[in-house]
Amino acid sequence: MPLPDTFDIHSARLVVRSIAARDLHDLLAVNGDAEVTAFLPYATWLGLQDAMAWLQRMEALAATGTGRQLVLERKADRQVIGTLLAFKFDEGSARLELGYVVGRAHWRQGYAREALCSFVGHVFGDLGLRRVEAEVNPANVASNMLLSSIGFTHEGVLRQRWVGHSGPYDTNLYGLLRSEWAPPAMDGASPGR
Ligand SMILES: CC(C)(COP(=O)(O)OP(=O)(O)OC[C@H]1O[C@@H](n2cnc3c(N)ncnc32)[C@H](O)[C@@H]1OP(=O)(O)O)[C@@H](O)C(=O)NCCC(=O)NCCS
User: Fold this and answer.
1) Domain locations in the chain?
2) Fewest beta carbons within 10 Å, which of 69, 81, 98, 177?
3) For ligand 1, is residue 190 a contact (CB within 6 Å)?
């Protein structure tokens, strides 16, 4: 099955849905923060022009059929508080890779876990995918811990896989199989949230 053109996945507090141009204003607050973009493969946004250039790249990715840029919309106030990228989709192997970002004002409130859990549940269930993976810089403590907390397995270290501003660096490879997926309680958020 090819990747659907659009997504609209509901969890307790979030809608994980396809991006729209109207989201860029909210996303400027997310990606205009150097602490948020420290481990991301794009520079901190300086204004709406950077946001629009990013959207164009995401639209070009979608046109290949191998990626979809989604956003995390909070149900309570309809604010877009983050993004989720599904990319490197391989139809034959029923596999894709995830990238995710949450605005700093919303960190440690369970939003990333809730979004990832609802998305992973959807692609393993409705879309029939069999593997989801993620690459994480070993220094990105939050992202490494997030994946472990959801049940991803740390499968290895790809040495000097990327070259950044300060030279080559390693990446941690994480994988989660449909056969081992056990959604946490509370639709992804920790009890009590
Ligand atoms: C990684 C990121 C998406 C996590 O978002 P979040 O909404 O704050 O994460 P959650 O609140 O859902 O956290 C879920 C679990 O992840 C772990 N975690 C999250 N942030 C953590 C941190 N700063 N330190 C240690 N563990 C952390 C914890 O186990 C946490 O569960 P707990 O709060 O019950 O202990 C967010 O820090 C972010 O956007 N970082 C910048 C962008 C980025 O690096 N993206 C990933 C690129 S690979």
Assistant:
1) 8-188
2) 177
3) yes
- Closest residue by Cα to residue 136 from 162, 82, 174: 174
CATH topology of domain 8-188: Aminopeptidase (3.40.630)
Q: Which atom of ligand 1 is nearest to the CA of 108?
A: 11
Q: Which amino acid is at 180?
A: E
Q: Which of 154, 157, 113 is nearest to 14 (CA)?
A: 113
Residue of 27, 33, 80, 107 with the most ligand 1 atoms within 8 Å of its CB, for mutation: 107
β-partners of residue 176 are 132
What gap in Å lies between CA 165 and CA 126, rounded to an integer?
Answer: 40
132 neighbors 97 (Cβ within 8 angstroms): yes
pTM for the model stands at: 0.95
How many CA atoms does the CB half-sphere of 67 hold within 13 Å?
Answer: 19
Q: Which residue has the tokens 């501003």?
A: 165
- Chain centroid, CA 192 distance in Å: 24
Distance CA 104, CA 94 (A): 32
pLDDT digits (tens, 9 = 90+) for 104-137: 999 999 999 999 999 999 999 999 999 999 999 9
Question: 58: which 2 tokens?
Answer: 């995401």
Q: What is the pLDDT of residues 54-68, one digit of tens each?
A: 999 999 999 999 999
